[in-house]
Amino acid sequence: MRKVLLISAAAAALVAAPVAYALLAQQPVRTSRLYEQLPAAQTASGVNYFAWTQNSVAHPRRNDALLKRGAEARVKLNTVGHGYLGGIDAPLVVYQQVYRGQSNIKIYNADTHVRSNPPDGVNTSDWEWEPSISGDWVLYGRQDNETNTQWIYLRSLSSMIEFKLDEGFTFRQAGQVNGDYAVWTRCDGSCDVVRRQISNTTDTVLPKPATTTYQYAAAVTSTGVVYLARSGRGCGSGGVKIVRYLGTGDPATGTVIAALGAGRDMSSAYARENASGSVDVFYDRYGCRSNVGDIFRVRDPAPGP
User: Fold this and answer.
1) Model-level pTM?
2) What order do you get walking across the sheet with 114-116 strand by strand?
3) Domains parsed from the chain with CATH numbers
């Protein structure tokens, strides 16, 4: 129902050169017999926001976008159809709603409990999906329903300013926008992660160890540190790695900070910056054969810069 296949949620594991970095422990966040995916998290004014997508026992084929804010009752964001979580900039939560074959982006205000549409021009008759929000910016993907052309857009909430970040006939997946940075996945042959610095419109394709490497499911901090999944071709082969780029001391091809293990993969990631300077990277980990998805996180204690 998310329309675009997540490239086996993109692939499986390759592996890079030896890494002089202790692999971080994977901490369970939401694990059950349900399929949980697409996490987003933020702490604002001492209140924890956590949002995600899951099905239910009663409706295993229907997905809902859900929000938990502090001790408040859980909120189902999509009022009809299917819901897929996007991102949080408290009190705003952005998500994808699919109803009667139409996919659009919606915004929920956790203070007022009001749901609204983004500015005119974001939602069209095409398929808008995988949104993220930060300040005045919404990052999202679009797919043409007839030609299969795919785009990544960055749109201002307060003006008509819009950037077309990417376009192609092959897989494009919006990642996270955070402060002055946005990241997305571009697949032409293999898959690459691209980082845009918004203020100077500079794009950086993050270098890979080999042309056969797949990199995808990207998240970014407000200082431009990127976290992504790295693999080879095929789900879970060899064990997917989570790799950090542009942190303090990271080499050009990044630092491996976690390993999902054989037979596992992931389709999205989301970075939450903590007051301590650490970063929590939330991601949806699933079994390639079991089709069970859960949400985990790793805590990077001091990524810099």
Assistant:
1) 0.92
2) 82-89, 92-99, 102-109, 114-116
3) 7-300 (2.120.10.30)
